[in-house]
Specification:
The complex is a heterodimer.
Chain A lengths: L3 E4 L2 E4 L5 E7 L5 E7 L6 E7 L2 E4 L7 E4 L5 E6 L8 E8 L8 E2 L3 E5 L1
Parallel strand pairs in A: 2-11
Antiparallel strand pairs in A: 1-3, 3-8, 4-5, 4-9, 5-6, 7-8, 9-10, 9-11
Chain B lengths: L3 E4 L2 E5 L4 E7 L4 E9 L6 E7 L4 E4 L2 E6 L4 E6 L8 E9 L7 E2 L3 E6 L1
Parallel strand pairs in B: 2-11
Antiparallel strand pairs in B: 1-3, 3-8, 4-5, 4-9, 6-7, 7-8, 9-10, 9-11
Classes of the chains: A mainly beta, B mainly beta.
C-alpha cells in the first residue's frame, strides 16, 4: 500500500562523507519533491522535478544535488555533509505542479557524526 | 514571495473540546490552502484542503474556513480525541506551474484525555 517509499529510514554518516537518500513512488506522479525538515520546523523545499525538469530553490546549498533517473525514483545526494545538515529529509510527490495534493513519504532521518 | 504565518505554535485542549488553528498569508494570488497533520516520526499527511472559490469545507470532525479578503484561513477540529495529537501545518500555493507550497511553522496540538 505504501505510495511514497524512502530508504533508508535512518542514516548515519560522517562529517564530509557523501551520502545518498532514495525515494520511490507507485503513484506515477509527474512531480517529485525533496524537503529538509529540522526539529520543530516546517518542511523546507530543497528542489523538485517536474518530469525530468529539475527546479532548484534559490537558497538550496550547492552541497545538495538530486537525480531522477525515471518516473518512479528520485535520489538526494549530499556531497559533503556538515553537522548542520542533520535533519529529516522528506520526499513528496504530486500528479502535477501547482494546487495538487502532495503525498509525503515517511522521511529519512540523517545523523552526521 | 508568499509568507504564511501560523498561530498558535502550541495548543492544549481537553478531550472532547474543539481546537482552532489560524493562518494568514501575504500573497493575494494564493488560491490553494492545504492542511497537513504530522505524527511523530512520520511524514506529513493531508487532512483537508480548500481552494479560493469556496469559503468553507467540512469533513467529519474537521473543517477549514477561508476569508480571502482578510487573507486568512483556519482549521477547526471538533470533539477532539487523543489521536488528534500531532503537529499541524497550514500551507498556501499559487495556481501557477513552478510555485511551491509555502508552509506555516506548525502547531503542536496536544489533546489531554
Amino acid at each position: 500500500d505504501a505510495m511514497v517509499i524512502q530508504n533508508p529510514r535512518y542514516q548515519v554518516t560522517q562529517f564530509g562523507k557523501p551520502v545518498t537518500l532514495s525515494c520511490s513512488q507507485t503513484l506515477n506522479h509527474n512531480v517529485m519533491y525533496w524537503y529538509q525538515q529540522k526539529s520543530s520546523q516546517a518542511p523546507k523545499l530543497l528542489f523538485h522535478y517536474y518530469d525530468k525538469d529539475f527546479n532548484n530553490e534559490a537558497d538550496t546549498p550547492d552541497n545538495f544535488q538530486s537525480r531522477r533517473p525515471n518516473t518512479s525514483f528520485c535520489f538526494l545526494d549530499i556531497r559533503s555533509p556538515g553537522l548542520g545538515d542533520a535533519a529529516m529529509y522528506l520526499c513528496a510527490t504530486s500528479r502535477d505542479r501547482g494546487p495538487y495534493e502532495q503525498y509525503f513519504g515517511p522521511g529519512t532521518r540523517l545523523t552526521v557524526t | 514571495g508568499e509568507n504564511v504565518e501560523q498561530h498558535p505554535s502550541t495548543l492544549s485542549v481537553q478531550e472532547g473540546d474543539s481546537a482552532v488553528i489560524k493562518c494568514t498569508y501575504s500573497d493575494s494570488a494564493s488560491n490553494y490552502f492545504p492542511w497537513y497533520k504530522q505524527e511523530l516520526g512520520k511524514g506529513p499527511q493531508l487532512i483537508i484542503d480548500i481552494r479560493s472559490n469556496v469559503g468553507e469545507k467540512k469533513d467529519q470532525r474537521i473543517a477549514v474556513t477561508l476569508n480571502k479578503t482578510a487573507k486568512h484561513f483556519s482549521l477547526h477540529i471538533t470533539e477532539t480525541q487523543p489521536e488528534d495529537s500531532a503537529v499541524y501545518f497550514c500551507a498556501a500555493s499559487i495556481n501557477s506551474g513552478n510555485t511551491p507550497l509555502v508552509f506555516g511553522k506548525g502547531t503542536r496540538l496536544s489533546v489531554i484525555a
